[in-house]
Amino acid sequence: MEQAALKVSSLAKSYNGRRVLDDVDFEVKRGELVAFLGANGSGKSTTLKCVAGLAEPDAGRIELEGAQLSEFSGRQLQLARSKAAMVFQKIHLVPRRTALDNVCAGALARVNSLASVSPLFFSRELREEAMGCLERVGMADRALDRVGRLSGGQQQRVAVARALCQRASVLLADEPVSALDPNAAEHVMELLAELAHNENLAVAAVLHQPDLALRHADRAIGLMHGRITFDGPVASLNQNVLDTLYSPERNAA
Amino acid sequence: MSIQTPPRPLDTALESASVRTPAPAKLPVPADPHRGRKAMLWGTATAVIVVLHLLAVAGTDFDPTLLVDGWQGMARFVSGAFPPNLDWEEVIKPGLDATLVTLWIGLLGTTLSIPSALLLAVLASRTTSPHPVAYQISRAILSFFRAVPDIVFALIFVTAVGLGPFAGVLALICHNTGVMGKLWAESMEETDQGPQDALATAGASRLQQITHGSLPLVIPQFVGLLLYRFDVNVRSSLVLGLVGAGGIGLLINQAIKSFQFDTMLTHIIIVLILIIVVDQASGFIRRKLAV
Ligand SMILES: Nc1ncnc2c1ncn2[C@@H]1O[C@H](COP(=O)(O)OP(=O)(O)O)[C@@H](O)[C@H]1O
Ligand SMILES: [Mg+2]
């Protein structure tokens, strides 16, 4: 059987003594787009952050491309982790820099020391690779525009290009389209699905709307109060499942 | 508004709307349980401020009558200053030369403190500091350089490198490192940490996260603060001249000591022009950057 690109087992995390993730197990394989669904506060972002290293799990195993993260530390851990790239709702590009420079920054883990100081020293080779990534997301014609001048949808596509330039095989996307208008959201979701299906990436995307998952994802994982309560193909996501998944939010509201 | 004009459609619409919408019901306002405490607080604050001012008046021998009685002294001073001495060889040319020195002291004092201020700012900003110990130490260093006035640094450096502009430059570098480093650290702490986090997940080193994620976000603020400090430092270097650090400040001091008030006035006018030019120039650049 094919090995999963991302395998998470028994992941647990508490904030201030409150359990936020409890015994979370899941896998994401290359070639599939997995949607994470669940009410606000159910632990979706925390799950992705633990994988990306933006949050420290209390317990559990995280394997990226077969490498068990807890076996590494320091620089080695950073490099092992860079197999997974993260795309954020708030995009987190540098607005004053060009799309091209922002995309090149995805490759910082493998550049020489001069390029660490300034984009002026990014090599021609790296720039060409970044152009290829921009082309892949349909933004090559805006390569030299400052990111701040691009629309939200265009910025998010540049952020995806940065993830590609990182040469990651796992793409973690936390509400990548929540801040976009429906049209741009549709484009970005199509892009993520293409990357999974055509480029054989493993894509894990937190989605705020179940219908986005139904249209674009292959599989859905449902979280409730920090526990996985659903894991199956989107075809089996019926109204009953969704009602249960989002019931905490309804009760709170 | 005259009564005769027929109501326009909008007026009619508003009128009928106001007829249909009932006024919101009125409810009694609950008594504020903290009312007494608030009154106490305000009373105490006022009393403290008044007492502080009385103490300050006593402590500074504050006495406006002295000013009235001593007006002749000032009048002699002012009448001695007019008309300003506009002799080119004796007054204006040396004044312009010295003003240039003042400007150079301000410039070097500002730019040469960039490396030290930048390093300390990165270490002293919670978002970029590599370690809590580095954070505390760099904060302490910045506080020290900020707390010691540039004029004290100047007096110290004069004993080492002698009277002259170089001592002024060294003094400004020290004091400005403290002030600018603190201002820069604060503006780093206020900026979005998102891009830095994003690069961290991409496997970027700490230094790379700063140079490609944090610093590019704060460059406009940094340059704005740098220009502001240049403005301040040029004015400080005037005062440093008074204690022997060269420049136009020194000439003004000499003119006063030898009772050449008309020469002093010319020099002050030159300084005034310098200050206005520097202020306008730095304001212009800051406006351009803000766009
Ligand atoms: N840095 C943090 N400090 C304290 N509590 C946090 C932090 N991040 C998240 N939480 C809490 O953890 C829970 C899960 O948050 P999150 O993973 O962001 O949920 P989701 O993304 O599903 O909306 C929430 O109750 C949230 O308040
Ligand atoms: Mg979230």
UniProtKB/TrEMBL annotation, chain A:
SMART domains: AAA. GO terms for cellular component: membrane. The keyword Nucleotide-binding applies. Keywords: ATP-binding, Cell membrane, Membrane, Nucleotide-binding, Translocase, Transport. Residues 6-250 form the ABC transporter domain. SUPFAM superfamilies: P-loop containing nucleoside triphosphate hydrolases (SSF52540). InterPro entries: AAA+_ATPase, ABC_transporter-like_ATP-bd, ABC_transporter-like_CS, ABC_transpr_PhnC, MetN_ABC_transporter-like, P-loop_NTPase. This is Phosphonate ABC transporter ATP-binding protein. It comes from Glutamicibacter soli.
UniProtKB/TrEMBL annotation, chain B:
Gene3D superfamilies: MetI-like. It is a multi-pass membrane protein. GO terms for molecular function: ABC-type phosphonate transporter activity. Keywords: Cell membrane, Membrane, Transmembrane, Transmembrane helix, Transport. It is found in: Cell membrane. Residues 1-30 are annotated as: Disordered. InterPro entries: MetI-like (IPR000515), MetI-like_sf (IPR035906), PhnE/PtxC (IPR005769). The chain crosses the membrane at residues 39-58, 103-123, 144-173, 234-252, 264-285. PROSITE patterns: ABC_TM1. The keyword Transferase does not apply. Residues 99-282 form the ABC transmembrane type-1 domain. PANTHER family: ABC TRANSPORT SYSTEM PERMEASE PROTEIN P69, PHOSPHONATES TRANSPORT SYSTEM PERMEASE PROTEIN. This is Phosphonate ABC transporter, permease protein PhnE. It comes from Glutamicibacter soli.
